[in-house]
Amino acid sequence: MPETSIVLAGVGGQGTILAAEILGTAAVKDNLNVRVSEIHGMAQRGGAVTSTVRIGEEALSATVLEGQADVLLGFEPLETVRSLKFVSDKTLVIMSDERIPPPALAVRKVNFPDTEEIVRTIHLFTSRLIIVQTKRLAEEAGSILAINVILLGVLAATQQFPVKTDCILEALRDLVPAKHLEENLKAFKLGYEYIKQNVRTN
Q1: Listed residue (167, 153, 15, 143) closest to 76, CA to CA
Q2: 8-state DSSP, 86
Q3: In the predicted model, what is the mean pLDDT of residues 149-168?
């Protein structure tokens, strides 16, 4: 099978690392060769976090070279822009619309870029963009913390991740604490259905 490289970019507290772990575990359950990166950046709440997942027989390390991502999974708009070095015109960008302004912007009295500006910037690299209304979907799922799983549902629905959906759900059941499992399963379903119902592409 061809290699698939996924970059996950967000901030601490969004579940970026757990999402990467779920993808890696799902690939193992599907009997695929997979490499998942260590944490890059600061994992504390509010700090930038980037992880990578690579799948395929030739995936000997988790390193994704610049311009080589097949998917950029952006948990936060500004962090998505910061990870555009991994993007080429073949890359699918899936981006949450939830904004978490970094403290540095407030200190420097710089406004957070508006959505149109962010979209224009992404389009300098690729036209393949899906913006996901994660906050609304997370509230519908019953947990604002389920944004990461919503994005995994969207990813699964795009068929850009070469792992069976049943394996992703099995990994989700293994890794999410039982007390939060129900809302996370609902979040995954909402993300999966979002593609078919109301995808905003730009």
Answers
A1: 15
A2: G
A3: 95
Question: Among positive and negative, which fits the CA dihedral 193, 195, 196, 201?
Answer: positive
Which amino acid, one-letter code, is at 168? I
pLDDT tens digits, 184-201: 999 999 999 998 776 544
Token pair 């995936």 is found at 59
Per-residue model confidence as pLDDT tens digits over 39-90: 655 545 567 889 999 998 877 787 898 999 999 999 999 999 999 999 999 9
| Distance separating alpha carbons of residues 188 and 195, to the nearest angstrom | 12
Sorted by where each begins, the domain ranges of the chain are 4-201
Name which CATH class applies to 4-201: alpha beta
Residue 44: how many CB atoms within 10 A of its CB?
Answer: 10
Tokens coding 84: 């555009």
